[in-house]
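tool=predict chain=A
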Amino acid sequence: MKKVLLLLLCLGLCGCASANSYLFRDKPELVNPARKLAESYLEGQKNGETDKEASQKYGKGVTEFLGLKEYRYLEAGHFLYTPVLRYRIQATNQMGAIVWGTYDISFSHDEKLASQDSSGGLSIKEVYETLCQ
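tool=predict ok
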């Protein structure tokens, strides 16, 4: 009985994880709205927008960059079934030095909101530095 419950739990979690799986591959038309959303967020960071303001506009997963100077779009892809856009970002680190880092911006997608907003139902799920260059 325990094995059956464990199996059902695993299958249920896999079903949840696959809701956004390969979103940019299956719906390539969402890459441009995702880029617009991400770059609007990054421009706001360049202009000193707080994480509270940004989270209301772009999604709860935003990060506040210290002194964001510049950014460059690299590619769209997926990481662990989550749609991501990869950027090179130049910002100030905790020691005050201006450095470049590679960041992934991941997205969640809500089909119900897709027709109601310009971002196609996308919101920023998480922003994190990657080890990829």
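The first helix runs from residue 2 to 17. Residues 2 and 8 are 10 Å apart (CA to CA).
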